[in-house]
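Record type: ASSEMBLY
Status: queued
Input:
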Amino acid sequence: MKFNIFRFNPETDTKPYIQSYELPGVNPEMMLLDAILTLKKKDPTLGFRKSCREGVCGSDGMNVNGVNRLACVTRLSELSDPIELRPLPGLPVIRDLIIDMEQFYKQYRAVKPYLIGSEPEPEVERLQTPKQRELLDGLYECILCGCCSTACPSFWWNPDKFLGPAALLQASRFIEDSRDEATVERLEQLDDAYKLYRCHTIMNCVQVCPKELNPTKAIGRIKERMVQKKL
Amino acid sequence: MSLIRRKFDALIIGAGGGGLRAALQLSRADANVAVVSKVFPTRSHTVAAQGGVNAALANVLPDNWHWHMFDTVKGSDYLGDQDAIEYMCRVAPKLVYELEHYGVPFSRLDNGKIYQRAFGGQSQNFGEKQAARTCAAADRTGHAMLHALYQQNIRAKTHFFDEYFATDIIKNEDGVVLGAIIVSIQTGEAMLIEARTTLLATGGAGQIYRTNSNALINTGDGLGMVLRADIPLQDMEFVQFHPTGIAGIGMLITEGCRGEGGYLVNGDGERFMERYAPNAKDLASRDVVSRSIFLEVKEGRGCGPEKDYVLLKLDHLGADTIMKRLPGIRQSCITFLGIDPIKEPIPVYPTCHYFMGGIPTNRKGEVVMPVKDTPEETVPGLYAAGECACVSVHGANRLGGNSLLDIIVFGRAAANEMISYMKENQYRLPMDEKAVEKAMDRLHRWDRKGKGETVDGLKDDLKKVMEDYCGVYRTQELLDQGVIEMKKIRERLPNVYIEDFSRTFNTARIEALELENLVDVAMCTVVAAAARQESRGAHSRVDYPDRDDQKWMKHSLYFKKDDRMDYKPVRTKPLTVESFPPKERVY
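Status: finished
Output:
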């Protein structure tokens, strides 16, 4: 199997280039991350992030044959040969497949991703019915891998103004939480031509999310809430 | 090159649940706190914890902290310190409620309370019926907790050094810890963090075994740092093999599967745990279940063409339960095995999962070591919490659901102790420049050019040695040979070279630094295992099949210098209740 990998080291390269590697006789049932780790044994200069190997830490997001995915939960047999690996698009490249995610994290922090309440905390747990809790399913599982936001054309154009699918999914997670008391403030903060409304329901985010979450739907829910609030 | 220097009140190394819980406590107390993590905080290994966190909330079945304490002491095979265990079990409900207040999306019962499931080794009324003590957010409890704790730290404006690798703690000649050297992974620049208090929360070291459930980052960095600072590690021979790793890969399948009613079968279709643990069956302690699986396979009753695994059956639970309570497990099985557990059983085999041992601390999170005639003298300025620490609440075997509890309980306790230490010690001590220089020399060792072995080559051999000589079942012969083999590995370390000398995100250099830690941790594990001539908890000796309380009810301490072993007594006296004396451990 052939791998064409985006390489760039700012200390030695004036511009990025594609380096080809061969892994002859590789087991097609192998995960892509394991294949890249095998390549790294041959070429230890190859840079990429990795940690959990099972799709929960969100370290190894990369663009694989044109699609953003997590290398550790992508099977080689799902991919056509040659496999082309590039860094997640739209954010600055630090080195090889490693991008600078600060802008992505900044937008995440901007939605105040924590419960806000003014009521005193009870001595025990706050009650939440299974139905109320169900509203968080499909929202809280985000692993901040960045696959969605870096697949979103609106985020590519305005990464500083449009919050992007990951941050908006997170905003929805707190808006929908029955324990959060800041819904009105949250909606007011999002009521902005860029922050929320730059989503043009292109739905790339839904297509690429490795956790099968649906940021577009979450954004739709925020928009509905916005309308309800205005009425 | 001049070294960048930054000053903080508190330095926390590691941003898993333990580090973040401590950071939150310190930030809220207006301490100037720096959290250093080699990965972005939510990528820490706490994120992979599945089943849940133990607390006697009694939301599902009757429960109280004293029963939890009994189960934990028994689970530890009487090597746990009962003062620390009492403290942990008593404070557990309060801290789990607190997690709920932080926003953790726990699963809920119909009455709106936190959902709790049954887990291994849990009982009501001191060893009677099964209890349900594990508070869960589906099967993603670690993820839910880690993200909530990170989010609370964003709110508290904690200062993070993301993607910085800590190489060494700085200890002066009087034994006071003054901070640490860290390296920016992104720029390669070294920095000295001067701190009045330093907390190690660096997690485990599962990467010393080939088959493990751990993240690639679990390389025992804090453990290595401590050994290099002439501080011993405690009880390192006790390595937990989780019974249900995905066969051949090692990825974790939560004990929650059995808690929800799943069970194990062998190649004859027999529910074999009924033979090994007639009462608790599949919910016996992890060491017991792992050994049973090992024996079934060894005696030829495994499943599959090679008869090298057993099956975990969930298909009788119904799609509803699996989708609602175990959705992450289902996703993992589909991804890694092409199997849907709603329809088919899961092939499983024990996998290296957790280190009961670690940096010796007391129940306040202070690092302690023997000095002259005092067995537990504190190391001023140094604290440890979470998997890298050994309080010890887990003794020789940790109960499922007690590690997520350990990190929040002792992360918080250590932070509280740091706060009071800083009140009493208001002034910063001068930096020990000699110690700084020594740490920098060690770091620069990897700038050396030459031809020799590769990092990966030595790492692979190390993992093979640990698997071959220091696995689930151990003998003197195997372990002695293991010590010899590990010494050979250690002797090869100076001949390892890297080829990449760039500064920008040089992962080759970070992996070389990690390798040094792996070598120290593996060495310590096999030496401690060879010394302990009894079977207790996770340490199973074929040649010494029984627990020997007379001789061995004591904690081991390993010192890097001369690979020396020392011992100290178990704290059998709880804080307020009667001690649980050692009894035969049956499930």
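Annotation: DSSP finds eight helices and seven strands in chain A.
Annotation: The beta strands of chain A are 2-7, 17-22, 61-64, 67-70, 83-86, 93-95, 98-99.
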